[in-house]
Amino acid sequence: MGIQLGMPQAGPAETASGLVDSYGRRATDMRLSLTDKCNLRCTYCMPAEGLDWLQKDQVLTRGEIVRLVRIGVDLLGIRELRLTGGEPLVRADLVEIIADIRANHAELPISLTTNGLGLDKKAQKLKDAGLTRINVSMDSLHPDTFAQLTRRPFLDRVLRGIEAAAQVGLGLVKINAVLMRGINDHEAPALLEWAVSRGFELRFIEQMPLDADHGWTREGMITAAEMRGMLESDFVLTPDPRTRDGAPAERWEVRRKSLPDVVVGVVGIIASVTEPFCADCRRTRVTAEGKIMSCLFSREETDLRDLLRSTADDDAVARRWQEAMWAKPKAHGMDHVGLGDADFVQPDRTMSAIGG
Ligand code: SAM
Ligand code: SF4
To answer: Could you give the C-alpha distances from 39 to 51, 90, 136, 138, 179, in angstroms and in order?
Structure first.
């Protein structure tokens, strides 16, 4: 169980250091979006026609990104970096960005969340640049279902990318899958079998109301409890004894029913909607255009790009970042959506425009 959040404290003034919020949580995990563009159109994320992409000069430059990470790590206690998007592999200077960050921070864990397109060609370069680990999103093992979900027929390319990542040793490869009712939910056990037999860690993610078409419904989403039920047709799941330590995924050790004494892998279930972990959240998000979002669902955004492009020093940027995080809401309220609670308002941004 997460920590209990008490009453908010007054004012960030006495906050000693770091990205602390008014409920006492400390953000140490930075999610940085490198672009809002993407070459897939996953139905739960993007509209078929794409979005109005940011102009090039609206997106943080390589130098601005590297500086922001340095401020985060050196001044604000960031201990972990996740690069995401949109699709981060479409960014031409991705390898250089990682190499620059690595040059400044020898020990920082740097991971990348990607759809895997083009990863086969870039995996070795990413590893050499200093990337620690990779998450690849793949929701189906069937080409037609994959094409239905992503609106692009590219499953074979994604599979090639995953294989390349494993071959070059990009850490423990994690696979992200969103289950959609009546489309790919029947594949849950097969996806897990595929992942454990290759030594990958599969993470099922509950679908969140962050799609462009506002098509999310509580009845439509597959809950974490349902996911566990589906997997139990073929597997025995027992809680992973390792501490969760602020991780969004609840991890389960996996045994095949046919061989119940042998742990064959681990599966993660990210139950953002039905079993929210807001009380233990350690994330701070930066959008591709340099806005701080203290929560995936916050409607407040704090711009850092104008400061980065002014004569402001690092301390001024750090202070504005701290102020943004101080106002982090207690919880996203998503667990009440569709239950008659009108408080929750879906953000204007899609997942791709925030950085998942
Ligand atoms: N394009 C990359 C990818 O797909 O991995 C990185 C960005 S994507 C927004 C990051 C993750 O968010 C993916 O694993 C994707 O499945 C997940 N995602 C996108 N929209 C979602 C939604 N509405 N609910 C839950 N997860 C979502
Ligand atoms: Fe693109 Fe990732 Fe969104 Fe799919 S989930 S549309 S790959 S950003």
So the answer is: 11, 8, 14, 14, 20
Q: Is the pLDDT of residue 70 over 70?
A: yes
Taking CA atoms only, the protein residue closest to ligand 1 atom 1 is 87
Q: Which CATH class is domain 15-354?
A: alpha beta
Instruction: Decide whether any atom of ligand 2 lies within 6 Å of the 86 Cβ.
Output: yes
Whole-model pTM: value is: 0.94
Ligand 2 neighbourhood includes 83 CB (under 6 angstroms): no
Percent of the chain with pLDDT over 90: 79
Looking up tokens 């202070």, which residue turns up? 319
Residue 351 in contact with residue 211, Cβ under 8 Å?
yes
Domain boundaries, given as residue ranges, for the chain: 15-354
Task: Catalogue the E-assigned strands of 79-180.
Answer: 80-84, 110-114, 133-137, 174-178
Distance CA 235, CA 229 (A): 10
CA of residue 356 to ligand 1 center, whole Å: 5
115 Cβ below 6 A of ligand 2: yes
Tell whether ligand 1 has an atom less than 6 A from the beta carbon of residue 139: no
Return the structure tokens found at 207.
């679908």
**Minimal CA–CA distance to 138: which of 176, 82, 91, 89?**
176
Distances in Å between the alpha carbon of 113 and those of 10, 12, 84, 321, 352? Answer: 36, 32, 5, 23, 12
Residue 268 Cβ inside 6 Å of ligand 1? The answer reads: no
Q: How far is CA 348 from CA 29, 189, 254, 278, 353, in A?
A: 24, 34, 38, 20, 9
In the prediction, which pLDDT does 244 show?
Answer: 82
